[in-house]
Specification:
With 178 residues, this protein is mostly beta strands. Helices cover 15% and strands 47% of the residues.
Length: 178
């Protein structure tokens, strides 16, 4: 009987120490690619390298962000900020590339994440109004360069009660040379 009471007391004290607000964090980042088939919805698969043929990427490229909500309450009104940059190397040579400044900086609103839930968010670099990925690749190739890696940086915009700390997550995607 005493062990049951002690276990109940320990559980109650741990629950009292845990935060009562929800915290959302980025649990995972993945690059995904789909080969479009006319008349069908694209089927995306996770990739570790990007097969390309200049001046374009073959297929539809996107970034998958998995958000994890910890806490007993839902979180609303999140803002996901992200950037995309390329490591540029001279086209047609085996030279090492140099990181360029980000060519895409954008954000996506997340209306709601439920309590103790995972949520997949998809970011499409081809939908940018300022500099779509395909346009950037054409300009880069015309200047005599081609990316040998892409880098995405993602963060949840800080907000009281939803995000406890500012953390930027990043993921690299090596690009196969033609």
């Amino acid at each position: 009987m005493r062990t049951a009471a002690a276990a109940l007391l320990c559980t109650a004290s741990l629950c009292a120490l845990s935060p009562l607000h929800a915290e959302v964090m980025i649990a995972r980042l993945d690059w995904q690619l789909a080969q479009p088939v006319r008349g069908r919805k694209p089927v995306f698969a996770t990739i570790t390298t990007l097969p390309t043929v200049p001046p374009r990427i073959s297929g539809l490229l996107r970034l998958r962000v998995v958000l994890k909500s910890r806490g007993p309450h839902k979180t609303e009104g999140l803002l996901l900020r992200y950037s995309l940059s390329a490591r540029l190397a001279p086209a047609g040579s085996g030279a090492e590339g140099v990181w360029a400044v980000p060519f895409l900086i954008s954000e996506k609103r997340i209306p709601k994440v439920g309590p103790n839930q995972y949520l997949d968010v998809h970011l499409d670099p081809s939908l940018s109004v300022d500099m779509p990925l395909s346009h950037y690749l054409r300009r880069t190739l015309a200047a005599g360069f081609w990316p040998d890696q892409l880098k995405a940086q993602v963060m949840l915009s800080p907000r009281t009660g939803a995000v406890d700390s500012v953390k930027t997550e990043e993921i690299l995607l090596p690009v196969n040379r033609p």
